[in-house]
Amino acid sequence: MIKQTVFVLAMVALFIVGPWACESASAALSVQDIVSQVSQITYTNYLDNVLYTHLGDNRGFGAEHDLARANIYSEFGSFGLSTSLHPF
Question: Which of 4, 29, 2, 20 is nearest to 79 (CA)?
Fold first, then answer.
């Protein structure tokens, strides 16, 4: 359960922080600058609508895994990040 929670929080952090992390180094954003841009609304949106984190959801080897993977892939691409999928 702890590993799953840490994974979800890491993914949410990447989604929320992604656009700002891609800015040039000259912007010199501090951690606090980035953290202050995270809202409860954005965080909740990712948990409720993107990552399939509801009770009963299964991101194992099933359809919800593929949907969550597609959402993550798409979101990273929207941040301007180069993304690719690897078979497992």
Answer: 20
Question: What's the number of domains the chain is made of?
Answer: 1
pLDDT tens digit string along 4-51?
555 555 666 666 666 555 555 546 788 888 888 888 998 888 888 877
Q: Where are the alpha helices (DSSP H) in the chain?
A: 2-21, 31-35, 40-49, 63-78
- Find the helix packing angle between 63-78 and 2-21, rounded to 10°: 20
Integer angstrom CA distances of residue 61 from 14, 20, 67, 83: 23, 32, 11, 21
Which pair of structure tokens corresponds to residue 36? 């202050």
Q: Kindly state the DSSP code that residue 61 receives in the 8-state scheme.
A: S
> Domain range for residue 61?
55-83
Q: Is residue 9 part of a domain?
A: no
Residue type, 20: W
